[in-house]
Amino acid sequence: MPTSLKSTTRLHNGVEMPWFGLGVYKVKEGSEVIESVKAAIKNGYRSIDTAAIYENEEGVGQAIRESGVPREELFITSKVWNSDQGYESTLQAYETSLKKLGLEYLDLYLIHWPGKDKYKETWKALEKLYKEGRVRAIGVSNFHIHHLEELLKEAEIKPMVNQVEYHPHLQQKELLAFCQKEGIQLEAWSPLKQGQLLQDPTLTEIAEKYGKTTAQVILRWDLQTKVVTIPKSIKEQRIMENADIFDFELSQEDMEKIAGLNKDERVGPNPDEFMVGFEE
């Protein structure tokens, strides 16, 4: 099991990815994102997850430069947005993201949403970037099993990561099993269901038992289900608290209680229906 913020999972190409990181979805460009990323890095985080559509890559890049931590010790993820999908446009989008971040390379680059059919072309662009050594790992986000199966038919390189909405109310067990079988690391976005799970009676009861917060129990559950997790916060206190999950382990019994909370309930859109930003 991961023992610290520096603990990593080995992706199928041998790249080490931290089990735990900071997400910056809806964190405002400028001082808000700069301060939250700096606070995370100062407190031992090494993985930062952004995306073109978050419009805060510049701030993330500035925070990285000001953090004083060598670039090669960090793991930086960004994503190609829907309107940039396609071969040439993805290559261009990658350059734009790199430029905004002020980086020479990314550790992980993801296709943000599958959309209808462009993702195969987009994937070819990611494969090119990967082969050229411009990005250390490539993957997808919000892909259902059927999207992955379609992609795998034509992909030369298998995705290393699939980042999806994942929390106790949306446990995606078939998807997790499929990804594990294929050697694709599952990663959770919105692990706390945007805060909606923090009052759940089962989770609060488990938290009391361990002397932990409900958020810590949920994030620990992610790790024990072998899912990478990237909770978002802009408060340093909460950033530190979220990461304080390496000194306890949930019992089998408590893992089963949490497994019983699944409702297949999303807080974000269903990837089969989400077409925002794709040219119709």
TrEMBL record:
InterPro entries associated with the record: AKR, AKR5G, Aldo/ket_reductase_CS, NAD(P)_OxRdtase_dom_sf, NADP_OxRdtase_dom
Keywords, comma-separated and alphabetical: NADP, Oxidoreductase
Protein name: Aldo/keto reductase
NADP-dependent oxidoreductase domain mapped to chain residues: 29-262
Record keyword Nuclease present: no
Active site residues of this protein: Y54
Binding positions for substrate per the UniProt entry: H112
CDD domains noted in UniProt: AKR_AKR5G1-3
Organism: Neobacillus thermocopriae
Similarity comment: family membership: Belongs to the aldo/keto reductase family.
Keyword NADP tagged: yes
Feature type site, description Lowers pKa of active site Tyr: K79
GO MF annotation list: oxidoreductase activity, acting on the CH-OH group of donors, NAD or NADP as acceptor
